[in-house]
Each structure stands twice: as structure tokens, then as C-alpha cells.
Specification:
ligase, 5-formyltetrahydrofolate cyclo-ligase activity, globular, 12 strands, eight-stranded mixed beta sheet, two-stranded antiparallel ribbon, EC 6.3.3.2, metal-binding, Rossmann fold, 5-formyltetrahydrofolate cyclo-ligase, alpha/beta
Length: 192
């Protein structure tokens, strides 16, 4: 019997939360190293990242490692289900937390999702073809829906995960935005 998305979400979230702090740090270091050698990252000047929660790989160290690049954190809109905005973040302390308790910058320039060069996307599970299972709220899929209508438009989308989050094949819905690559502590998957 095939797992539902909800079952897979629960299993993968528990697995990544179960990683020790040591393994989390090792994964973050290995992912940053792989990303920094990739051509999409080297070419990008405006990069969307995320604040790690719930066992996600921590990519915040990239901000200090690459001060010439501009990094942006997603900011949730006030309305319940519209699109994310991306606000510049230079690595400082964040005191505000959104309704999911995720820290967000309150001030700073906002970058349109269209104008980002690269977005590092958190995920719960992925497959080697670029399928992504997120937390279920659909924020990234709604924000980057224009990529379905205009393939190649906007930023490259690279998923960031622990290798244990890889599955053979994910069920894909019509609104899912495929990833161009996924990076883990073990490898960089080129998708699509």
C-alpha cells in the first residue's frame, strides 16, 4: 500500500527531527560546500533562503560566507493563503515571529520572486526527478506558479534536504512546482 502525502510527511518530519545536532551541523556544512561549488549558486546574486525549522538543513551560514551576495528570507502575508514576499536579510538577529513561529525580518528591501536568481527551498521529501513534498500550506507553489505558465522564467529552484528525505517517486499534483535541482549532504541531484 502506497503512503499518502500526510503519512509520508509525518514519517519524514520525524526522521529529520531525529537527527542529532552533530549530524545536523555536518549536513549543513556539506550542503553549503556543495552549493557553493554549483554554477547556479556561483552565478546568483539575489538568493532566497529560509529559516530552518523542524529539522530542516540550516543554510543561514551562507549569508556570512558570501557577503557579496544578497540573501532574502520569505515573509508570510497577512492574509491566510496568498504569496510569499522575500525581504533582504544580512544575518542579524530576528525578533519577530510569524503565525508559524518562524522568524522574519520586519524591515529591509523586498525582492519580487520574479527577480530572485535562485531560491533554496525547504522540503519534507523529494524524488530525483525534482518532485517536492512541502509542509502542505502551498506557499512556494502559489508564489512561483508563474513558472508553470512560463517555463524558465524567474529563479532556479533548488531543494535543500537531508539524504534520508529522498524517496523513489512522489505523487505530483498539477499545482506542484518542480525543482531544478536538490542538494543533500551526499549529492547534488540535477532534475528536469
Amino acid at each position: 500500500m502506497q503512503e499518502t502525502k500526510a503519512q509520508l510527511r509525518r514519517r519524514m518530519r520525524a526522521a529529520r527531527r531525529g537527527l542529532s545536532p552533530y549530524l545536523q551541523r555536518r549536513a549543513a556544512t556539506a550542503v553549503a560546500s556543495r552549493l557553493s561549488r554549483s554554477s547556479p549558486f556561483r552565478r546568483a546574486r539575489h538568493i532566497g533562503i529560509y529559516w530552518p525549522m523542524d529539522g530542516e538543513v540550516d543554510v543561514r551560514g551562507l549569508v556570512r560566507q558570501f557577503p557579496a551576495k544578497h540573501f532574502y528570507l520569505p515573509v508570510l502575508p497577512a492574509a491566510p493563503r496568498p504569496q510569499l514576499r522575500f525581504r533582504h536579510w544580512s544575518g542579524g538577529t530576528l525578533n519577530y515571529r510569524n503565525r508559524y513561529r518562524i522568524p522574519e525580518p520586519l524591515r529591509g528591501p523586498v525582492q519580487s520572486p520574479w527577480r530572485l536568481d535562485l531560491v533554496l527551498v525547504p522540503l519534507v521529501a523529494f524524488d530525483p526527478a525534482g518532485g517536492r513534498l512541502g509542509m502542505g500550506a502551498g506557499f512556494y507553489d502559489r508564489t512561483f506558479a508563474f513558472k508553470r505558465r512560463l517555463p524558465g522564467a524567474g529563479p532556479q529552484m533548488i531543494g535543500v534536504a537531508h539524504q534520508l528525505q529522498c524517496v523513489e517517486q512522489l505523487p505530483v499534483d498539477g499545482w506542484d512546482i518542480p525543482l531544478s535541482a536538490v542538494v543533500t549532504e551526499q549529492q547534488l541531484y540535477r532534475c528536469g
